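ok so I'm stuck.
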Amino acid sequence: MTLLESLPKNSIIHYWTRYLANTEIPIGFQLATGLSLIGSLLWRGVGFNQENWIVPPYLSILLVGPSGCGKDTAINAMCEVVEEVMGEGYVSERIIQGKTMEYIFSRLADLGNPAAAIVKAPELTALLGGRDYQKSMVQDLTDLLSGNKTMDVSIKSERRFIHKPTVTLVAGSTVEWLQKNMPEGAIEGGFIPRLAVIVGERSSTYVSLLRYLRDIKELIRYRESKQRFIAGLYGIIKLWPTTSFQYIPPNHEAALMYDNWYQNRFKMFSPRTQDYANRSRDIVLKVAMLCAVSCHRGIILEEDILFGIRFCKFVADGIDSAVIRETLESKISKEVLALLPLSTKEIITKLIHIYKKDDILRAVALLHETERMQLKDKVWTERIK
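replied:
not stuck anymore, here's the structure
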């Protein structure tokens, strides 16, 4: 089952993906922008009660891929629909171009309480700037996306306050820039785990606009999908206005599914994304909550949790391939998996001329601990999940 197929059938996001199906935007970008769009309109109007804190609905995303793969197109399409639904005044006030952190802070400080906005940064490199500033700016963004407290900031030597930052960061980048420039500790420090990082490639299929001239029915379907999605957004705004607050609780079966996943979540992630697994619950809960809302439901069902889990795994796999610099351990792990099935002795024999024995054994142990490999009759085989 694909990620799109696991999206609940009644979700209005299906209309969004049908609308964007006539573009070359990767499906991961389509799903991420659809979820993020809905979350950005809810502000703090709904939440998931996780004992001593409330998980809010707004979802920040980072679209990663080569130039021309649809990052800008997806982000612009999302912002255009926000303008169509909320009006030009809302957009001019609450969609902030990610020029500099000082500019973002200044705009947010003007918004009052809560400081709810979409920060649009199609090229993350333009926002984070030079290498000398990136570490401190990534920390500023992390604090902003946490949204837990009022931020005390300095803007042109003036002390300003950002009250309850409710920020949806919608950003884009290339794999090369992230691997070269993202500061070490971006995962452990919490910046990357606060984003849904979606990796996409250039479409192998060229979408010609001329086909609309040949097939008027196709054009009608395209427009209908957009209008149905917008109608669904109006329904969400009516059901969950930002002026009030409602919990979106899970039913019993959904809670059991989530608890089972949470207790075993580290097995779902590769050796290189174990730090991300520590914070993965927020992504699962946010996406599950947005799935329920996108179905105009005030309760989270099993299908919502299932999609949240699959979306989270999709994100983790993207982080593994796009964000994390390859370590010796991960390099050996990749080669070990490619050699299977083999015994431990055979693995060492195959790789000892390249790597030290202790490093090979450490990679084998980690692959076993994270359930990427299984041992039967002294032979290792890859565990397919």
